Amino acid sequence: MPALEQRFGKRPDLIVHEEDPFNAETSRRALATSSVTALDAFYVRNHGSVPELDEDRRRLQVGGMVDRPLELSLAELRDGRHQVHEVTATLQCAGNRRAGLDAVAGIPGEARWGPGAIGTAVWSGVALADVLRTAGPAPSATDVAFVGADRSAEADPPQPFGASIPLPKALCPEVLLAWEMNGKPLPAVHGAPLRVIVPGFIGARSVKWLERIELRDTPFDGFFQETAYRLVPPGQEPGPGIGIALGEVALNADFLLPADGERLPAGSVELRGWAVAGGERQVERVEVSVDHGTSWRQAELMEDLGHWAWRRWRTDVDLAPGDHEIVVRAWDSAAGTQPEDPAHLWNPKGYVNNSWGRVRLRAEA
Ligand SMILES: Nc1nc2c(c(=O)[nH]1)N[C@H]1C(S)=C(S)[C@@H](COP(=O)(O)O)O[C@H]1N2
Ligand SMILES: [Mo]
């Protein structure tokens, strides 16, 4: 195990998938114990090494299809011209729960994320919309691209991580250029000195170590937008423009406690987990079944942290001695629910496993 400082100050129960680039997910227990995820527990998804950046010398460039290209220091971003906003938002990697797809058929070269590539934090910074209005988007601009200061050798050719979102989303007040996370300076591993936060969208659109914002009339043409983070049909090879570009998060839910495979005393057992709706949608209902989906009971939705945050849920079930499989599914404000079987969702890059959450438990007399 690497020294603590190489783990970026993360707690020992973080589940490390890769050392460099550092990729690690939060333990189910850590997610279950607080509605806002602690900084030292928050998952990390990197495509290159964490860049060492001198905050005082950094400039944010805003260019492309704008009337007034900008170059802003961090001090200028924070000097009060733009109001500071705070948003509680959940970030989730599009590869969260990939292990469930990998169990259907192998997904080589991709981390087998469990349900912990997700976390909720209080982010603060300025609204991207305010900065964009200062720059003045050209009438024909349709997309806003973000480029980071890291460099990824996973891309072909090697390049900084980058992504874009549609301009209408970029103008929404919840989209932030953030320098604080849970009231503390943004940690280096989470994108210091400045990152984008795009609530309701997959984590990959919330670009860390932000260096450049570019207004365009097409989506960003970098590897991580054009080739990666796309839902490719089974049987096709990932490639530029192949498959659905992932944007809004899909409705999803899973268990946090007890852990899969746990043995516990028969009788009343508390179940806990999370649910996220994605986009503008809200989690309306979470239900669990102890009979493989024949009947469902309502779980209790826990604290409401606002429009952009997950809902944690809990319920008690009575388990007779023996083996049990319990499943969970959520419903959202569009009356959508989750598919039962990960086999029907399998895709070559292993994204968006939002099949029913599942735990197997042994209740002992
Ligand atoms: N510059 C940069 N931004 C990035 C990434 C990256 O590798 N480089 N990873 C993205 C992905 S895929 C996710 S899921 C989130 C993860 O954010 P976190 O590491 O702060 O949890 O950051 C996104 N932003
Ligand atoms: Mo991600």
3D structure, described in words:
The protein is mainly beta. The two termini are 39 Å apart. The chain is built from 6 helices and 24 strands. The longest helix is centred in the middle third of the chain and has 8 residues, at 128-135. The protein is globular. Helices cover 8% and strands 35% of the residues. It folds into 2 domains: 4-245, Oxidoreductase, molybdopterin-binding domain (Sulfite Oxidase, Chain A, domain 2), CATH 3.90.420.10; 252-364, Immunoglobulin-like (Sandwich), CATH 2.60.40.650. Ligand MTE is lined by residues 42-47, 91, 93, 148, 150, 161, 190, 203-204, 206-209.
What secondary-structure arrangement, pairings included, does this model have?
Blueprint lengths: L14 E4 L4 E3 L2 H6 L10 E2 L13 E6 L5 E4 H4 L6 E9 L5 H5 L15 E10 H8 L7 E6 L13 E5 H4 L5 E6 L2 E2 L9 E3 L12 E7 L6 H4 L3 E2 L12 E2 L6 E6 L5 E3 L1 E10 L6 E7 L7 E2 L1 E2 L9 E9 L2 E11 L24 E8 L1
Parallel strand pairs: 4-13, 17-24
Antiparallel strand pairs: 1-2, 2-3, 4-5, 6-7, 7-10, 8-9, 8-13, 10-11, 10-12, 14-15, 16-18, 18-22, 19-20, 19-23, 21-22, 23-24
The chain binds ligand MTE and molybdenum atom (MO).
Tally of helical runs? 6
Number of domains: 2
Estimate the strand proportion.
35-45%
Q: How far is the first residue's CA from the last residue's CA? A: 39 Å
| Number of separate strands | 24
